[in-house]
Specification:
It is a single chain. With about 450 residues, this protein is of the alpha/beta class. The chain is built from 16 helices and twelve strands. It has three domains: about 70 residues, Glutamate Dehydrogenase, Chain A, domain 3 (Orthogonal Bundle), CATH 1.10.285.10; about 130 residues, 3-Layer(aba) Sandwich (Rossmann fold); about 160 residues, Rossmann fold. It is about 45% helix and about 15% strand. Strands 9-8-7-6-10-11-12 form a seven-stranded mixed β-sheet, sandwiched between helices. A five-stranded mixed β-sheet has the order 1-2-4-3-5, with helices on both faces. The structure holds 1,4-dihydronicotinamide adenine dinucleotide and 2-oxoglutaric acid. This is Glutamate dehydrogenase. One of its GO terms (molecular function) is nucleotide binding. Keywords: NAD, Nucleotide-binding, Oxidoreductase. Homohexamer.
Length: about 450
């Protein structure tokens, strides 16, 4: 008798105890992939899903560094190299105190399916450290990054594994990491993406995840003869993804009314325009301040401490902060308030209960592995530019990004359209992402 989905998930749980987010990500995908394998003989008896949930390699290492007072500090560094069936390992680095193996395995698993959806040849990985850049001086961040890279450099390379940014890893950190890699290897190469333009970065990479999320949401809405134009939009987060999701939504004529950070959210009922957003960019990227300062600059706005923005009425919700930030209560409020579409800028921002409520209510559900794939897609374009020694214009990269987001949307429609004509974007993304990786794994044999 063949294994059931429940047996499979039980086995994954037994092998990966105390890793709830990893299990959440695997179950969400397996619920769609398992029946697909049952229906397609060629994927049976090949242990494809069993292999996909087991990382090809995990590297865990000590990172010792010296703080400004001269004290030695110790953090833990990781790289989870999940799957290289369709291309070299690719995925971001996260520096945040909550980083552990569970979180990075969930992110790496998601990354495999996401990277497959981009239409590019990118395997999946994720890495990072429990180091907290918040409150550290530039010199401390630099010393941490240098020591982190001293070990990581042994395991990555432009044809092997190409890390990028994620939470807590932006321009500054990528620069320090790149500088150390180059010094150690004596090799100027495209080993990281998200680099500054001055040393091989791609135009539009900073914007790509947020812009791509809005492009994806617009495709979903257009499928129902609607548009984001004129809609009220709630965004969580105020980092890289949130800033550029807001920018594109504003450009498309939407009214963005919230932004947040881990301490609370701001509600600007007049709408955040480009000028206000430029203030937020400087506040977060330049001054490294907190979002509550927004109400000092714009006193008509209201700050809500220790709350998430989902209680505000909106037609489009873009969770762009972190995993499991949108729970069942928030989902019920969004449904009650007439929300039409969700675009997940963050990775797995909705809890399982929230997903069920939103799907039950038939809200258009732009799942993260599809909706936020624009970031890694433009990372792939940065790799191509580095390999060719060229720089493309912002217009060209943006056009490529638009094309890729359209193709990802089409793939979701192709594999996610139900018998009644409705589109299950979760199913579509999981199956389309799985199929390409599975075909490559079949071709390459049991390795
Ligand atoms: N940077 C990228 O290209 C991509 C990022 N993502 C995902 O997007 C999300 C945001 O990443 P970035 O914007 O790059 O990071 P970032 O470090 O630039 O910003 C993170 C934002 O989330 C907020 N945040 C963190 N923890 C929070 C919490 N517990 N509650 C509320 N807010 C919290 C922070 O205050 C900050 O505003 C993450 O889930 C990341 O994995 C997904 C695809 C690509
Ligand atoms: O650009 C990249 O390589 C990775 C982006 C990322 O970490 C993500 O898609 O979650």
């Amino acid at each position: 008798m063949r294994q059931t989905l429940q047996d499979f998930l039980k086995e994954v749980e037994n092998k990966n105890p105390n890793q709830p987010e990893f299990l959440q990500a695997v179950s969400e995908a397996a619920e769609n992939i398992f029946p697909f394998i049952e229906e397609n003989k060629k994927y049976q008896n090949q242990a494809i899903l069993e292999r996909m949930v087991e990382a090809e390699r995990i590297i865990i290492f000590r990172v010792a560094w010296t703080d400004d007072s001269g004290a030695i500090r110790v953090n833990r560094g990781y790289r989870v190299q999940m799957n290289s069936a369709i291309g070299p390992y690719k995925g971001g680095l996260r520096f945040h105190p909550t980083v552990n193996l569970n979180i990075l395995k969930f992110l790496a698993f998601e990354q495999v399916l996401k990277n497959s959806l981009t239409t590019l040849a990118l395997g999946g990985a994720k890495g990072g450290s429990d180091f907290n850049p918040k409150g550290k001086s530039d010199a401390e961040v630099m010393r941490f990054c240098q020591n982190f890279m001293t070990e990581l450099a042994k395991h990555i390379g432009a044809q092997t594994d190409i890390p990028a940014g994620d939470i807590g890893v932006g321009n500054r950190e990528i620069g320090y990491l790149f500088g150390q890699y180059k010094k150690l290897q004596n090799n100027f190469t495209g080993v990281l993406t998200g680099k500054e333009i001055a040393y091989g970065g791609s135009l539009i990479r900073p914007e790509a995840t947020g812009y791509g999320t809005v492009y994806f949401v617009e495709h979903m809405l257009q499928g129902q003869n609607k548009s984001i134009k004129g809609k009220q939009v709630c965004i969580s987060g105020s980092g890289n993804v949130a800033q550029y999701a807001a920018e594109k939504a504003i450009e498309y004529g939407a009214k963005v009314i919230t932004l947040s950070d881990s301490s609370g959210y701001i509600h600007d009922k007049e709408g955040i325009d480009q000028e206000k957003l430029d203030y937020v960019k400087e506040l977060k990227n330049g001054k490294r301040g907190r979002i509550k300062s927004y109400v000092e600059e714009y006193p008509h706005a209201v700050y809500h401490a220790n709350k998430a923005p989902w209680e505000e009425k909106c037609e489009v919700a873009l969770p762009c902060a972190t995993e499991n930030e949108l729970n069942a209560t928030a989902a019920k409020t969004l449904v009650k308030n007439g929300c039409l579409a969700i675009g997940e800028g963050a990775n797995m921002p909705c809890t399982k209960d929230a997903v069920d409520i939103l799907q039950e209510a038939k809200i258009l559900y732009g799942i993260g592995k599809a909706a936020n794939a624009g970031g890694v897609a433009v990372s792939g374009l940065e790799m191509s530019q580095n390999a060719m020694g060229v720089r493309w214009s912002a217009e060209k990269v943006n056009e490529e990004l638009k094309k890729i987001m359209k193709e990802i949307h089409q793939a979701c429609v192709e594999y996610g359209t139900l018998e009644n004509g409705e589109i299950d974007y979760i199913k579509g993304a999981n199956i389309a992402g799985f199929k390409k990786v599975a075909d490559a794994m079949l071709a390459q044999g049991a390795v």
